[in-house]
Every structure is written in C-alpha cells, then in structure tokens.
C-alpha cells in the first residue's frame, strides 16, 4: 500500500461486491497512542490547550484524509517500513471512533474556555483512558459503538432461515459452517483459520465472485458465518 488507507473500488462491475475502505490495522492503534499520550500529558502538566491540539489532530485527517494525520505519517514512514504491512480492517469504525474522540476533546476545550475546568479535565481523562486502552489492547470502544449502531440501523445480514447448499457448491452435511468471505478481508482469513483449526467442515462463499449470493442473502458486511444442517437450515451464527 502506498498510503495508510486503501479504498477498494465500490464499482460492482470491477469488484462484484461493495468493499468498504480498508486500513492497516496497526495504524489507528499508533495514532490512538499519540492522542492518548497528548490528552494524558495535558492533565499531568495542567495545560488544557493540548486537548485542542489533539482535537485538531483528529479533525484534519477526518476532513482531508490520512496525509494530514501526524500519527499515520509517523507510522507510515518510520514504523511500517520496519514491521512490514499489517493486516487490513474496515476503516469506517475507526473513523467513527476518531469522530467521537474529536467531539469529547472539543467539548473538553470548550469547557475550559467557559470556566468549567473540572468538566474539561474529566472529559479529557475519559479520552486519554479510552485511547490508551485501544492502543495497548486493541479494544476500541468507539469502533464497538459503530458496530452496535450499524446493527441497530439494520446494516447486517437479512434474516434468512435456509441456505441453498447446492447453489453455493457445498456437500450437504450436518455441522457444516457456511462462511461469506472476501479475499481482502483480514478478519475473514482469521475466522477461516480458527474454524479450520477446530476441524469444523467449512464452505466458503467469496462475495467478490458471487455478488448474486451476497444480494440474495443480504450480506453487506463480512465475515459472516452460519452453522447449518444437512438441509441448509441455519442453526446458529458462528463467530471466532
């Protein structure tokens, strides 16, 4: 990749399936570490304008792309050449998490300007804690909020009761797991590896080559995997 973010074509004629913008999974954690350290530093030294600078650091790439993201540039030019490309992930939850951070840091700055320093320090501490948690553990609370809101808005698989096993080229058998996948989806590869290691019979449906099946079963996000019986009746959704 020449930049931190890769945007796959959304033209069905080229990809056959709408692929979300992708990002090196390590880049947002590096940037979150910088934001978390800046917010924590503001609290430790008692200089709240660092909140405003951290907010600006989030606002610029959200508005103009990763080329104005200080953390992304440091990662791209100094860290990534030594580690090599990392796994890719959907960039949309990360952008939402950055937007949440921007709102809280902006609110913290405005609270100080309005004469409510205690509120400002509290909001800044919350950002520092969540950003450092994401950087150290990979648990991004803002990203999980995005996924929850997506499910509430109905962005997810259509409710189906049965998958036609002959249509997807799978042999009927009990305990089979049907996984909808895409070759550029790192989470898809991780789920496949986990299921294979457990000895679970697996039927893969590549939505990039079978967009007709993606439309039929309402697959808008991957990976999605379902345990089915020999007749294709869906028994449960499978996660890693």
Short descriptors:
single chain, about 240 residues, alpha+beta, 2 domains, 9 helices, about 10% strand, elongated, disordered N terminus
| Broad structural category | alpha+beta
Q: Could you say how many structural domains there are in total?
A: 2
* Structural Rg: 21 Å
Q: Can you tell me the overall shape?
A: elongated
Question: What about the largest sheet?
Answer: 4 strands, mixed
Number of strands: 7
Strand content: 5-15%
Distance between the termini: 27 Å
Average pLDDT score: 85
* H/E topology pattern: EHEHHHEHHHEHEHEE
Strand order of the largest sheet: 5-4-6-7
State the helicity in percent bands. Answer: 40-55%
Q: Which regions are unreliable across 5 or more consecutive residues at pLDDT < 50?
A: 1-16
Number of helices: 9
| Assembly annotation | single chain
Describe the structure.
- By secondary structure, the protein is α+β, with helices and mostly antiparallel strands.
- It folds into two domains: 148 residues, no CATH class; 63 residues, Glutaredoxin (3-Layer(aba) Sandwich).
- The chain contains nine helices and seven strands.
- The strands form two sheets. Strands 5-4-6-7 form a four-stranded mixed sheet.
- Strand 6 and strand 7 form a beta hairpin.
- The radius of gyration is 21 Å and the shape is elongated.
- The two termini are 27 Å apart.
């Amino acid at each position: 990749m020449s930049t931190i973010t890769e945007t796959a074509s959304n033209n069905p004629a080229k990809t056959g399936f709408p692929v979300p913008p992708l990002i090196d999974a390590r880049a947002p954690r590096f940037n979150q570490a910088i934001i978390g350290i800046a917010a924590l530093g503001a609290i430790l030294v008692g200089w709240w304008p660092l909140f405003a600078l951290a907010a600006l650091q989030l606002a610029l790439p959200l508005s103009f792309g990763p080329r104005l993201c200080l953390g992304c540039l440091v990662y791209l030019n100094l860290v990534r050449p030594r580690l090599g490309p990392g796994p890719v992930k959907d960039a949309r939850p990360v952008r939402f998490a950055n937007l949440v951070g921007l709102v809280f840091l902006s609110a913290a700055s405005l609270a100080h300007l309005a004469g409510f320093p205690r509120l400002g320090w509290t909001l800044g501490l919350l950002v520092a804690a969540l950003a450092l948690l994401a950087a150290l553990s990979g648990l991004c609370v803002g990203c999980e909020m995005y996924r929850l809101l997506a499910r509430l808005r109905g962005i997810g698989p259509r409710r189906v009761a049965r998958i036609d096993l002959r249509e997807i080229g799978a042999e009927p058998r009990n305990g089979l797991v049907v996984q909808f996948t895409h070759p550029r989806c790192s989470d898809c590869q991780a789920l496949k590896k986990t299921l294979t290691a457990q000895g679970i019979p697996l039927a893969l449906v590549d939505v990039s080559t079978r967009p007709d099946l993606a439309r039929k079963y309402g697959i808008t996000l991957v990976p999605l995997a379902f345990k089915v019986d020999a007749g294709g009746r869906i028994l449960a959704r499978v996660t890693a």
